[in-house]
């Protein structure tokens, strides 16, 4: 009849680390409410407005020559700036992480500069350099080269604004990995290029992809710097973010939100890819700590 | 392959990592570079490997100067302290790396590479791990794979940087014996760096003792232990009792009091008396060179270790000596001490 008490096991309650249920509910509810109002609601509004006149209007808005031209330009600018930043970011991170030289701290500060400067200023710099009254302006005009209000200017401004992403993603990773694997490869007879492609690159691939992803998202979404240098020539120098603004100002809400919905989808895809990559990077970290 | 190092000097800023170092390594030798951290031993090893460059001096392999050659051209197998295995490659690919990066003209075909890797994995007794990644291996296994990888290129010379430094004591001991028997099997000229004297004395044919960028002594393990050339070597290898003494009138004085030992022709002046702990014989009071009283006795397996406070020294001096278990010792006993063997070196500074 008398069951021995000692055999009934109650798991210890972790009261020290847990608030009462009511408080927990309130805190979680507040966080969710905040996210709903400031993140989910705007996103829903973008898609709802884009489809407010039906799917046909949405598709038609995206099929407009101006919209197609903006999409093309945005993809082109992103392709140029991401690939150039990929190469220069890897080189910068390599130099900073694997070598010691005078002025290293200064170089790191320079890499971060685009993050701390307002994008409008970043655009203005190029106007001051290449504009008609700018530093190189007269020379460029004399040789009939167009940089401002054309693709080169937009690409330059975008490259400037998105430069830190790849380097920033790689520097801590490469610093943590050190140079021993490279030294091992070289002592085993590998050339510099073989060492880079067989040892260094595979070790940083997830970090590199992460940097490229963020760089791409920013390159496609950049407004301020591009707005200053683009000149807003319709069907020629408007990127997607610029076109969203123009269409909205002209009360073409469906068309405006249709383009905006594409940018929003890019953001969502980036978010998912970023989460996946971060998980990969964490795994890599655990491996290398071991 | 013989190795010769001449007048090697390397500075990092004001710090002289290597100061005019000369060294000859005979063909097929297993040499230990032994010294405390900062003694320049790893720098010397890296310069021989071609991973670092000296400010001045020469390095030659088999009479041929190699300083103008890159690490890859020197055909040296290097084993890193923290293994430096390629983390994204399997064990098999790690070992195969050196064979796969060879210029196309001399590269082996896939079947030959596979056969060679298999042979090396058999040699280090880890062929069953060939599909694993480095993070799935234990420290000892990683170190053996690192060795197999270094051997894959058929190196003329094998260099190991603190090969067992990151392993626990038991694995260390096993790997030491294993490395020695492996060396007997493949007989390639090898140099390993260590700060562990026991490791150096147990594994190497010859030991190079280094301190502050200089070579203090080169000799067989027996020589450096029994006939240390300098005060540093005596103090660094084995455990020593060191007493500040003065040599005067052919005798040795401690705190102004003559000790009953000969100066062995050592020049007069301030000096240091070095005695191995187990070379100090304990006798009844009044019978030896030094008088003292036992403060504390502990037993360790076959020996007992006594802390003895010396009488006659200017300041209170307590030394630790080792005595056999059968000799009865108690705290408070008055004893006398007679060194069976001792050495005198000039006092530094």
Write the layout of secondary structure elements.
The complex is a heterodimer of chains A (290) and B (349).
Chain A lengths: L20 H30 L4 H9 L1 H34 L5 H13 L2 H12 L6 H6 L8 H12 L1 H14 L2 H8 L4 H30 L2 H7 L9 H10 L3 H37 L1
Helix pairs in contact in A: 1-13, 2-13, 3-7, 3-8, 3-10, 5-7, 5-11, 7-10, 7-11, 8-10, 9-10, 10-13, 12-13
Chain B lengths: L2 E10 L2 E11 L4 E5 L6 H9 L6 E6 L2 E2 L10 E4 L11 H10 L9 H14 L15 H13 L5 E5 L7 H18 L2 E6 L2 H7 L2 E6 L2 E6 L1 H6 L4 H6 L3 E9 L2 E4 L2 E6 L6 E8 L3 E5 L5 E11 L2 E8 L6 E8 L9 E6 L3 E4 L3
Helix pairs in contact in B: 2-3, 2-4, 3-4
Structure summarized in a few sentences:
In chain A, 77% of the residues lie in helices and 0% in strands. Chain A is mainly α and 290 residues long. The N and C termini of chain A lie far apart (54 Å).
Structure description:
The complex is a heterodimer of chains A (290) and B (349). Chain A is mostly helical. Chain A is built from 13 helices and no strands. Chain A has helices at residues 21-50, 55-63, 65-98, 104-116, 119-130, 137-142, 151-162, 164-177, 180-187, 192-221, 224-230, 240-249, 253-289. Mean pLDDT of chain A is 87; it is low at 286-290. By secondary structure, chain B is of the alpha+beta class. In chain B, the strands form four sheets. A six-stranded mixed β-sheet of chain B has the order 6-7-8-3-9-10, sandwiched between helices. In chain B, strands 13-12-11-14-20 form a five-stranded antiparallel β-sheet.
Distance between the termini of chain B: 41 Å
- Main sheet of chain B, how many strands, which sense, barrel? 6 strands, mixed
What series of H and E elements makes up the topology of chain A?
Answer: HHHHHHHHHHHHH
Overall form of chain A: flat
Strand content of chain A: under 5%
What's the total count of β strands of chain A?
Answer: 0
- Helix count of chain A equals 13
Major sheet description of chain A: none
**Approximate helicity band of chain A:** over 70%
Q: Gyration radius of chain B, to the nearest Å?
A: 25 Å
The residue ranges of chain B in which pLDDT falls below 50 over 5 or more consecutive positions are none
Structural class of chain A: mainly alpha
Please trace the helix and strand order of chain B, writing H or E for each element. Answer: EEEHEEEHHHEHEHEEHHEEEEEEEEEE
Helix percent of chain B reads 10-25%
Strand content of chain B: 35-45%
């Amino acid at each position: 009849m008398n069951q021995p008490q000692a055999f009934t096991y109650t798991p210890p309650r972790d009261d020290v680390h847990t608030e009462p249920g009511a408080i927990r509910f309130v805190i979680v509810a507040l966080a969710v409410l905040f996210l709903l109002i400031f993140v989910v609601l705007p996103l829903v509004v973008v898609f709802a407005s884009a489809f407010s006149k039906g799917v046909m209007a949405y598709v038609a808005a995206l099929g407009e020559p101006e919209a197609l031209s903006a999409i093309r330009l945005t993809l082109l600018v992103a392709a140029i700036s991401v690939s150039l930043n990929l190469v220069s970011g890897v080189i910068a991170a390599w130099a900073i992480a694997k070598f010691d030289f005078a002025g290293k701290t200064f170089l790191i500060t320079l890499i971060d500069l685009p993050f701390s400067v307002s994008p409008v200023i970043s655009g203005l710099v190029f106007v001051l350099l290449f504009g008609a009254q700018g530093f190189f302006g007269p020379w460029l005009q004399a040789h009939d080269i167009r940089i401002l209000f054309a693709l080169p200017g937009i690409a330059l401004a975008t490259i400037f604004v998105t430069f830190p992403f790849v380097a920033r993603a790689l520097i801590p990773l490469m610093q943590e990995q050190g140079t021993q694997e490279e030294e091992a490869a070289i002592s085993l007879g590998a050339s510099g290029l073989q060492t880079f492609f067989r040892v260094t690159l595979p070790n940083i691939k997830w970090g590199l992809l992460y940097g490229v992803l963020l760089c791409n998202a920013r390159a496609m979404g950049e407004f301020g710097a591009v707005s200053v240098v683009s000149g807003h020539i319709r069907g020629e120098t408007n990127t997607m973010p610029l076109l969203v603004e123009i269409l909205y100002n002209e009360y073409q809400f469906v068309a405006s939100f249709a383009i905006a919905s594409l940018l929003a989808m890019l953001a969502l895809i980036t978010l998912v890819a970023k989460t996946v990559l971060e998980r990969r990077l964490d795994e890599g970290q655990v491996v290398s700590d071991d | 392959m013989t190795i010769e190092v001449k007048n090697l000097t390397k500075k990092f800023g004001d710090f002289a990592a290597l100061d005019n170092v000369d060294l000859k390594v005979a063909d097929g030798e297993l040499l230990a570079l032994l010294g405390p951290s900062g003694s320049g031993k790893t720098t010397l090893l890296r310069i021989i490997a071609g991973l670092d460059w000296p400010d001045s001096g020469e390095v030659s392999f088999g009479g041929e100067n190699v300083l103008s050659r890159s690490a890859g051209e020197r055909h040296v197998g290097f084993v890193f302290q923290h293994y430096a295995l390629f983390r994204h490659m399997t064990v098999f690919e790690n070992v195969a790396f050196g064979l796969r990066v060879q210029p196309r003209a001399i590269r082996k075909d896939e079947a030959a590479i596979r056969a060679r890797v298999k042979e090396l994995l058999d040699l280090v007794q880890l062929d069953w791990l060939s599909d694993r990644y480095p993070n799935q291996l234990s420290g000892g296994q990683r170190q053996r794979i690192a060795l197999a990888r270094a051997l894959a290129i058929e190196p003329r010379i094998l260099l190991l940087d603190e090969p067992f430094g990151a392993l626990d004591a038991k694995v260390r001991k096993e790997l030491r014996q294993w490395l020695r028997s492996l060396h007997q099997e493949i007989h390639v000229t090898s140099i390993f760096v260590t700060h562990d004297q026991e490791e150096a004395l147990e594994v190497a044919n010859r030991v190079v003792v280094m301190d502050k960028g200089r070579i203090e002594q080169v000799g067989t393990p027996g020589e450096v232990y029994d006939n240390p050339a300098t005060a540093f070597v005596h103090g660094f290898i084995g455990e020593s009792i060191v007493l500040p003494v003065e040599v005067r009138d052919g005798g040795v004085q401690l705190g102004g009091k003559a000790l009953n030992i000969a100066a062995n022709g050592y020049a007069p002046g301030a000096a240091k008396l070095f005695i191995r702990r187990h070379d100090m014989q304990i006798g009844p009071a009044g019978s030896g060179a030094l008088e003292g009283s036992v403060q504390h006795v502990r037993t360790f397996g076959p020996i007992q270790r006594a802390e003895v406070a010396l009488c006659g020294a200017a300041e209170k001096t307590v030394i630790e000596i080792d005595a056999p278990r059968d000799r009865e010792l108690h705290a408070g006993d008055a004893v006398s001490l007679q060194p069976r063997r001792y050495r005198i070196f000039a006092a530094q500074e």
